[in-house]
Amino acid sequence: MPKQKITREMVVEAAFSLAREGGMGRVLVKPIAQRLGCSVQPIYSTCGDMEGVRQAVAARADRFIRDYVAARVEPGHLFFSMGQAYLSLAREEPGLFSLFLTRERTGVSSLDDLYRQEASPAVAKAIAADLKLSLERARELHLQMLIYTMGIAAILSTCRPGIPAEEILQRQEAAYQAFLAQI
After folding, report:
1. Does the pLDDT value for residue 17 go beyond 90?
2. What is the tens place of the pLDDT at every residue in 103-150?
3. What distances in angstroms separate CA 140 from CA 104, 135, 143, 169, one per listed residue?
């Protein structure tokens, strides 16, 4: 049987599957080689060093997360359903969610910087229209809920067997009402 040619895409997909199972800490050359059924040499020859592989895995994870959230967003309930999508991601894909939370974000020196980097301007516009708020207030509400949702999702991604969805939904709704009243 001829030897299989290992490509960069194969390495990234194998590394991505490892990250899904346990975060970036699992993305090491030997487990990748085992997953591909090869020695470590083809990994180094196709990808150079492991830092490049980790960057490619982070980019692949970002695409996965965007697609995951987009598939669960309900047009009439954009704000709420997006928060629910991130909570589901934390519960269903704790390895990827951990990677999402802990990845280095450059150029961020304030929460506003983080918001500009992480949030889509379309979401703030939709919130403003749905709730009849100014764009500035909609952004503030979105930032508050983003901070809260990411925090609760971080908790969810590390708790076993897990916190009941009803409890999380109640807390999320209470936080939303409090932030809305503050706005």
Report:
1. yes
2. 888 999 999 999 999 888 888 998 999 899 999 999 999 999 989 988
3. 23, 9, 5, 21
Q: What percent of the chain has pLDDT over 90?
A: 54
Cα separation, 16 vs 3, in Å, equals: 23
List the end-to-end C-alpha distance of the chain, in Å, as a whole number.
Answer: 67
C-alpha torsion 80→82→87→90, nearest 10: 180
Largest Cα–Cα distance in the chain? 68
The span from the CA of 111 to the CA of 79, in Å, is 19
How much is the pTM?
0.78
CA–chain centroid gap for 22, Å, is 14
Round to whole Å and give the CA distance between 73 and 82.
5
**Cis before 75 (ω within 30):** no
CA distance 82 to 52: 31
